[in-house]
Write a structure and sequence with these properties.
The protein has about 240 residues and is mostly beta strands. The protein has one helix spanning about 1-20; strands at about 30-40, 50-65, 65-85, 85-105, 110-135, 140-165, 170-185, 190-205, 210-220, 230-240.
């Protein structure tokens, strides 16, 4: 009798910790921040890679069974240093993305959850500086910068897996494919780009709802100007 009572007491003590990691909630709000390096493809770069920083927010809500809806917003800045006509230039960009989509998750056992997401990129706005070269009849050309804006949209698809490790740890990996297209307001040209992104991360549940996460990611683009991007980031999530 005493042994059964002790086992029951231990089970009650351990239950909240197990639920925190194994009950995969897809209803949450999350803040995301990351630092990135983008390969510089200029012919004569002043520095090898471009530095970037992102701040974003996500919200997800389970609506019926295993289905959920998800919205996201992010703002990312990057700084390039290139050489144009033997003139060093500082080029920067700011990219704002707003998306809305839906997902479906499938549990396999108590510790594994697969999910599939599809989203529409409702708004993609990139404000960036570009080189401007003015020929000179006498002497070298005059090299300056001018502002340019890309306005577009797109779509994305993601396949991911969440795996509980221990009582309060979780691993989360995802493979995403994104396609965007936009109009260059300065010239009237149309640009398109496809991105393949792999993200691997972990999450620690400080409480049943609050969790802290970290991740690394790598992406390849069809646009050489934004290719070979490596990121290191952190997340703060509250699950309901």
């Amino acid at each position: 009798m005493r042994t059964s009572l002790n086992l029951a007491t231990v089970a009650l003590i351990l239950l909240p910790a197990s639920v925190a990691a194994n009950d995969f909630s897809y209803t949450y709000i999350e803040a995301i921040a990351d630092a990135s390096k983008t390969r510089n493809t200029a012919d004569a770069p002043v520095e090898k890679d471009a530095d970037g920083n992102l701040l974003g927010f996500e919200a997800s809500w389970e609506i019926a069974g295993a289905f959920y809806v998800k919205g996201a917003w992010s703002r990312e800045t990057k700084d390039f240093a290139n050489e144009v006509a033997r003139t060093a230039l500082e080029l920067d960009s700011e990219q704002v993305v707003t998306s809305l989509g839906a997902g479906y998750h499938i549990e396999r056992g108590e510790r594994t959850s697969f999910y599939l997401e599809a989203a529409a990129i409702l708004e993609l706005e990139v404000d960036h500086s570009v080189p401007h070269v003015t020929p000179s009849r006498f002497g070298p050309p005059v090299v300056t910068t001018q502002d340019s804006t890309i306005d577009g949209d797109g779509y994305s698809a993601t396949l991911g897996i969440r795996r509980a490790v221990g009582s309060r740890w979780e691993m989360d990996s995802a493979l995403s494919r994104l396609h965007t297209s936009g109009d260059v307001l300065r010239t009237g040209d149309t640009l398109s780009d496809s991105e393949t992104l792999l993200r691997i991360g972990g999450r620690f549940y400080a409480t049943d709802g609050l969790s802290l996460g970290a991740f690394v990611s790598y992406s390849r683009h069809t646009d050489d100007n934004f290719d070979d991007i490596r990121k290191l980031g952190a997340t703060l999530r509250y699950s309901f």
